[in-house]
Amino acid sequence: MLKITIAVGRGTQVFSSLRHGRSPCNIARQCLGRLDAKSQMDSSRPSSTFLNNIGSDWCRTHHLVRCYAKNKDKKSNKGQKKVSIDENFLAEHFKYNTMKTEMEKAVAALKNNYIKNLSLRSSTGALDSLPVTFEGDEYVIQDLAQIVRKNPKTIILNMTSFPQAIPAVLESLKASGMNLNPQQDKTSIFIPIPKVTKEHRENLSKGAKALFVKTKDSIKELQNKNIKVLKDNDALATDLVHTLQDQITALADKYVLEAQRIMEEKQSELKGDS
């Protein structure tokens, strides 16, 4: 509209500006077309008067029309590209198997932490697989004790076979996250089964989230460490490094998603949804 307004005021002086401008709007083009037709049909009438008339008509009729430039900064709606992981290709350029093994261990450690620290019910099944560190090695309680359910509210651990392991077992029970308060009587350990409260469930769920975040950070640290090794290798082309980086990131994301799935299943269990 600015060009048309100027054209109305200056007549034919703007003719060249309108015709040769970079991208005249549709209204300007139509005005110029009519001006061309006029010049062929009626050479006696001044072009400035004709241009003023048609410009005024169009301004009155289309005063709300605006010509917008294309937005070059408009973001694409397309999703992120899917990256395929080529294990043989990765193994050719760095210690891929080592990185993969460490990521797998991080996820496995999360599972073990959930078993060790976030068991909801103090059942014989939960106690069977509870880890115990004894004399530098790791065992489960069923390797060290005979587990007996005395009644619905009490579990007894008979430690006659490994009495020297009693302190380690007591420590593991208290740190299990199952809200246990074990009591020792000679070579037996009595475990009252606590009532599972809503507050206890919520605290365990928060603990599950905290352990997941720790695992996620560990995986991302492995990702960044290996990417840095590639970037520091001057023998690798830049494009190759970018390709390797994308695949390493995709692999790390895969293990993070697996850890997240395990966390969500655990939280569902803790909240009583399963």
Description:
The protein is of the alpha+beta class. Helices cover 58% and strands 10% of the residues. It has a 4-stranded antiparallel β-sheet with strand order 3-4-6-5. Helix 1 (2-10) packs antiparallel against helix 4.
Low-pLDDT stretches? 1-19, 58-65, 73-77
The end-to-end distance, rounded to whole angstroms, is: 66 Å
Count up the helices: 11
Number of strands: 6
Give the ordered list of helices and strands: HHHHHHHEEHEEHEEHH
Q: In which range does the helix fraction lie?
A: 55-70%
SSE-based structural type: alpha+beta
Strand residues, percent: 5-15%
User: Quick one: overall form?
Assistant: elongated
The chain-level mean pLDDT equals 77
| Overall radius of gyration | 38 Å
User: Mind describing the biggest β-sheet?
Assistant: 4 strands, antiparallel
Strand order of the largest sheet: 3-4-6-5
Short description:
With 274 residues, the chain is α+β, with helices and mostly antiparallel strands. The protein contains eleven helices and six strands.
